[in-house]
Amino acid sequence: MIDCKHVWDRISEFLDDTLSREARDLVQRHLEHCEICSAILDSTRNIIILTADARVFELPMGYGERLHARLEEEISILRREPR
Amino acid sequence: MPAKKSAENPRLAPSAVFALPMREPPDRSAEAQVIAAIIAGDTHLFHDLIRPYEHTIFSMAMALLRNPQEAEDVAQETFLKALRNLHAFRAEARFSTWLASIALNEARHHLRRDRAFESLDNTSDETDRIAPELLRDWREVPSEVLERLELRKMLQEAVTELPVIYREVFLLRDVEELSISESAESLGISAASVKVRLHRARIMLQMRLAPQLRRLAPKGRRFPW
After folding, report:
1. Could B133 and A75 be called an inter-chain contact, meaning their C-beta atoms sit closer than 8 Å?
2. For position A9, what pLDDT does the model report?
3. Which of A25, B14, B58, B222 is the most buried (most CB within 10 A)?
């Protein structure tokens, strides 16, 4: 049986499913008996989902229009000067 | 709520249940066809090719530069470079990965040029062990919570204040959804270092945000974190 600190050290890899089978099983068995670690795992997973959402950073007004206008300029140049 | 056996508690089902959800990626073969058509001369299709990535590339630049104007410049430069160099894109890579690598390099270039770059040496991978916040309560992430300005600001600060070596890994892996090896290649570090930095980034976010999110929850309700 592994202790809580060992589980915390493996949370990230557990979430990514990159642990060895043996290590994953050890974590899994611990989680089945440890309410605290299983809550920490859920909390970490949710916080990753929230912080990784691109909508955390709102696009500036007109961003898309400016981007595509600039791309259009470049496309026109490329068309005039084909590689 | 007492801990239960996995058979009774869906949260404790096999690890696949815990795997982080992936956003629906654009169809790779359709994307490859569009890229081939652009290289062959149908250049206007580039507008459609990049639309799915406009927001994440901006977000990544914003998280690194912390300035909307600079982030927009970096995003524009990223897409312009992608357009100019599309013929060099190798089909075995994912287009999203390629874009993210360009954006990372552009953002790093801006950081070096505009201000004293946070020294990579000041943040060691070998810092003391960090332990996550103890939190006992939890429920599913409501997507509408992102609509709340206060929460969004909290998340922005938590991400932008991560030390840069952890921020970069978090952005590539969790925001841009590169694999461990793709992230390692983009950053020029080993896969083992990516894993270590990613773990620290995620735990730092959890440690910082879990207590804040708990405070944000309305009184009388179970906090979701």
Report:
1. no
2. 92
3. B58
CB of B84 less than 8 A from some CB of A:
yes
Give tens-digit pLDDT for B1-34.
344 333 333 333 333 334 555 556 678 888 999 9
pLDDT, averaged across chain A: 91
**CATH fold of B24-117, please?**
Rna Polymerase Sigma Factor; Chain: A (1.10.1740)
The domain spans of chain B are 24-117, 122-216
Closest in A11, A14, A79 to B203, CB measured: A11
Q: Are B216 and B151 in contact (CB under 8 A)?
A: yes
Tens-digit pLDDT profile for residues B112-130: 876 654 444 445 554 455 5
Q: Under CATH, what is the fold of the domain B122-216?
A: Arc Repressor Mutant, subunit A (1.10.10)
> Can you tell me the distance from the alpha carbon of B170 to that of B206, in angstroms, rounded to the nearest whole number?
13
What counts of helices (H) and strands (E) characterise chain A? Answer: 5, 0
Provide the ipTM. 0.90
Rounded Cα–Cα distance for residues A46 and B129 (Å) = 22
In chain A, which residues have their Cβ closer than 8 Å to the Cβ of B182? Answer: none
Q: Looking at the complex, report in whole angstroms how far the Cα of residue B146 sits from the nearest Cα belonging to chain A.
A: 7
